[in-house]
Amino acid sequence: MTLKTTLNRRRFLGTTAAAAGLTLATPAILRADDDFPSRNISVYIPTAEGGGADRNFRAFASVWKDKLGTDFEPGFYPGASGRVGYELYMGKAEPDAYNLIFGNMGPEVLNWAMQAPSFNIDDYLYFGRVDTDPGALFVGAESPLQSLDQIIETAKTRPLNVGTSRMAHPASIGVLSLGEATGAEFNLIPLGGGKNTVAGAVTGEVDFSVLTSGTVISAGDAVKTLLVFGENRVGAALDDAPSMNDAFGTDLPEMLSSRAFGIHQRAVDDYPERFETLTSTFAETFEDPALLESYIAARGTPEYLNYGGVDDCAAFKAAMLELGERYKPLLTGA
């Protein structure tokens, strides 16, 4: 037996309306995204304009935009060690893959270990790592403390004030661990960003500072690096400073800053095609020689430029949370 359906105008209109309603009610996962991106992408940056994250972002975005076929519109939301930017992003930004966050995974994830944010930290993920940058200990070029031995011996007689960009920072953990290993006493002073942390050491506001080493390198001859909380991959650019593990026989993991792009988990779930476009073009950007040129022009350290995908970022995020829990008593007691 053959069943025959007559398609008249009324039935067609009814069927079309029902299908349209179904499309609207169906998660975006089933909708085509051939035109993505059809407008500029907003990027929330939880630190001040002109800082290391800003320079890093602009260097990368200037090349990525050609792969993606659209431009990026950064917004800067400094405050509360990065919390302000993340809270705004998670609370206000539409989870549609047109809104990203560009943060420093090291200190910003450590921040969640110190004090949980208002949102669930699993409601966002990092998907594109741009660099890995170890922390460093440095003094101003005119500082009376010009060696590690001087710092340690002085800090055994009185606590030394140490500038850091924010309390929950991998470099902060590094210097507190140095105190544990040597018996030296250090008092951490959060100075609010890389520029202020460099200035604190140069002007003598603090006895010395600890910071992401890429920013230290950018400071040039105004500072002298004495210790790296990880491998010194750049030699003379960090004054041939030794790693902490080599100098003191410790087994400290690398205290890294690592800038990366993040996105709402809901955007990944609802718009997988858009997310695939973001991740694939992000990876392609690392294959373009123009990226290295742009990175160097922005005073980036080429040895630190280092691609990482979703899995790499997830592993780093988990490691920072574990590290934060381990060193939380030191940081909160500082």
Structural commentary:
There is one protein chain. The protein has 334 residues and is of the alpha/beta class. The chain folds into two domains: 41-132 and 258-333, D-Maltodextrin-Binding Protein, domain 2, CATH 3.40.190; 134-248, Periplasmic binding protein-like II (D-Maltodextrin-Binding Protein, domain 2, 3-Layer(aba) Sandwich). It contains 13 helices and twelve strands. It has helices at 9-25, 52-68, 83-92, 105-114, 148-155, 170-182, 194-203, 213-218, 244-248, 265-270, 272-285, 289-297, 310-333, and strands at residues 41-45, 72-76, 99-104, 124-131, 133-140, 160-164, 186-190, 208-212, 223-229, 256-257, 259-264, 305-308. The strands form two sheets. Strands 2-1-3-11-4-12 form a six-stranded mixed sheet, with helices on both faces. Strand 1 (41-45), helix 2 (52-68) and strand 2 (72-76) form a beta-alpha-beta unit. Helix 2 (52-68) packs across helix 11 (272-285) and helix 4 (105-114) crosses helix 13. Mean pLDDT is 89; it is low at 1-32.
Going by helix content, strand content and strand pairing, the class is alpha/beta
Roughly what is the average pLDDT, rounded to an integer?
A: 89
Sheet-strand content, in percent, reads 15-25%
Strand order of the largest sheet: 2-1-3-11-4-12
User: In total, how many beta strands?
Assistant: 12
